[in-house]
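Table S2 (text version). Query chain:
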Amino acid sequence: MNEPGIAGAAELLRQAREVFQGDPAALAVLDELDQRLAGPLRIAIAGMVKAGKSTLLNAIIGEEIAPTDAGECTRIVTWYRYGHAPRITLHPLAGGPQALPVNREDGRLVFSLGGFQAEDVEKLVVDWPAASLRDLTLIDTPGIASLSRDVSGRSTAFLLPEDAPTAADAVIYLMRHLHASDIRFLESFKDTAAGKSGTVNALAVLSRADEIGAGRIDALISAAVIADRYSRDENLKPLALGVVPVAGLLAQSSRTMRQNDVDALMLLARMERAQREKMMLSVDRFVRADGPDGVESALKASLVQRFGLFGIRLAVALIRGGITHPTELAHELARRSGLGRLLDTVASLFQTRADALKARAAVVGLEALLGGSQPGQAAVLEPALEQLLAGAHEFRELRLLGSLRTGGVVLPPGQAEEAERLVGGRGNLPFQRLGLTPEAGTEEIARETRSTLDRWRQIAENPLLVESSAVDACRVVLRSCEGILAAMPAVR
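Corresponding structure-token output:
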């Protein structure tokens, strides 16, 4: 990152160590902030009970390692991070960390808490050698709005701490439909210590999207229409950067497809069409119906559990359309599940500005530490802290993005939408900021950037632009455009 955000945050943490030397509690906080700054981006998966959080997490990782049943472990905050060898560590509320056995049954990771109860465990940490976890730490959280206060309380305490920054840099929030509980949670998340920076760092997912169309093969099309409507909802728009529809069960199963799944789907595809469609009118009829030979009721039940009727229908249609290679079939099912779009969105909105989000979290953590310190200690660091917050352009972009989402900037609608895009609200890569296609070349990007700069300079010089928020917004947009050109020395 060329801007001073992450370097400035690291320097502030170094200075803080000098100020708090001899204070073990403060130094422990600074150790955590240093680790956060140096480590991968942290994204929490949140949502109400049965929203499909663990299923989606498995799909993102590409392996079935997060428990999806209603067992004890789904009541515990669980971290999934990259490790060279599989390892599970239990962190109890009292006492030191405990290593747990790594066992797999039927391809799935099985957790055993030993002699611990869920209410006695602070968190589980799973180290796993998955490439998808190299640059991303995923955090599975218990269900929001659970009937169990203990379960909901765990998620609330983790995601919405009262006197400290939340441990997640961003949140993927799953919802089956848009409920008042979803809005309340996202409002609370935005109002946490990290949210007070004005940052909007949540992405909503319309999970179990295949159920919206009752499992029909065109269910994702209906879900996409609903997701688009939700993304423009006046209550949700200030709280989330977008809404992505995903058929989570299909996404998970396509990424963990087995040969016996493929063989059974091939046999179903060879059935006479009328017979197949009749047996797939309901789950019960599908499992109980006779045929085809080689696909018994137990295997059919397994297919339903892993793919759902939507996934089975889609897989059969793809096979009959000519896709017969298992790898090609798995990739196409994953793409049509919406997982690819979700991963692209996470990458463009969060991972491309990971340094800025991590630096902002470290600064917020330092602010919280100073807030509880002696006046003399805070006075030493506060000037440098304020200077960093005011001068780091990444932070100014994040604040402007939040202000634009909440209506805190007075700009005409067209200009407000363009400003949001130019500061990275639709993706952080140059072509995304400029509204170009991914195929845009260097010269096209440079040309469009110069044109945009000229237009926004005229906007900034407009004598009718008197609102200070609008003037500040123009300055941030201009600096963002200048940053794009500065990163292209060959065509400046």
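Notes on Table S2: The mean pLDDT is 86. The first strand starts at residue 41 and ends at 47.
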